Amino acid sequence: MGIVDNIKLIREEIPQNVKLIAVSKTKPVEDILEVYNFGHKVFGENKPQELRDKEAVMPKDIEWHFIGHLQTNKVKYIAPFVSLIHSVDSLKLLSEINKEAIKNERIIDCLIQIDIAHEETKFGLSENQARELLSSEEFHTMKNIRICGLMGIGSITDDNKKTRSEFKELKSIFLSLKQAFFLTQESFSEISMGMSSDYSLAIEEGSTMVRVGSSIFGSRNYLKLQ
Ligand SMILES: *Cc1c(COP(=O)(O)O)cnc(C)c1O
Questions:
Q1: How is the chain split into domains, by residue range?
Q2: Residue 52, ligand 1, Cβ within 6 A
Q3: Whole-angstrom Cα distance, residue 70 to residue 91?
Q4: Does any ligand 1 atom lie closer than 6 A to the CB of residue 69?
Q5: d(CA 115, CA 142)
Q6: Which of 130, 139, 136, 132 is nearest to 98 (CA)?
Q7: Which CATH topology does 3-219 take?
Q8: pLDDT tens digits, the chain, 226 residues: what are they?
Q9: Is the shortest distance between the CB of 213 and ligand 1 below 6 Å?
């Protein structure tokens, strides 16, 4: 099956109210254009320079999501155009995003990444760390960022029960932070969870955005590209 067949099937499977982010990292622009010409315009990338380079040559009505770990010195590459940054994991990073947003005269939408897998290789804040960030004085001075919800990455495991409980945890943290900090803010409404191996599960547990790469574009060959 080709890329377009893949995305067609996945789009049929996903409810209307869940946003599908086609994760195109490591894939060439020809592959992205194939999906774009089919009519899908929401893509995710996890490397700032790669995203900047692709954005420069692709149609301007694409909605680009940044989903990878972001270093503060690289925010500038994506700040002019990025639609949503899923991976905010520190006050320092948020402050840099705010600075770049001011430079670009825009408001940048962000999600806070929560560590739900508790694996050393994964980034993200605990619920308490997220609370600290949201309670801080500095956070309240940032006028050019908008927190739209949370993101989480499930463990790499075949154990659906474990994955499901991680997604349940993210939903419950979302509800408690909503209650504590965003009760009057409708824009705090997104839960980004679910990838190729677990997006159905994530949707059952309340995901509003799924980030799907290999099930659309095929497996990634990092060696060939780097
Ligand atoms: C690569 C990546 C995805 C997509 O992974 P697939 O398993 O290929 O669907 C989703 N989220 C993040 C944060 C990623 O880095």
A1: 3-219
A2: no
A3: 12
A4: no
A5: 24
A6: 139
A7: TIM Barrel (3.20.20)
A8: 899 999 999 999 999 999 999 999 999 999 999 999 999 999 999 999 999 999 999 999 999 999 999 999 999 999 999 999 999 999 999 999 999 999 999 999 999 999 999 877 778 999 999 999 999 999 999 999 999 999 999 999 999 999 999 999 999 999 999 999 999 999 999 999 999 999 999 999 999 999 999 999 999 876 554 4
A9: yes
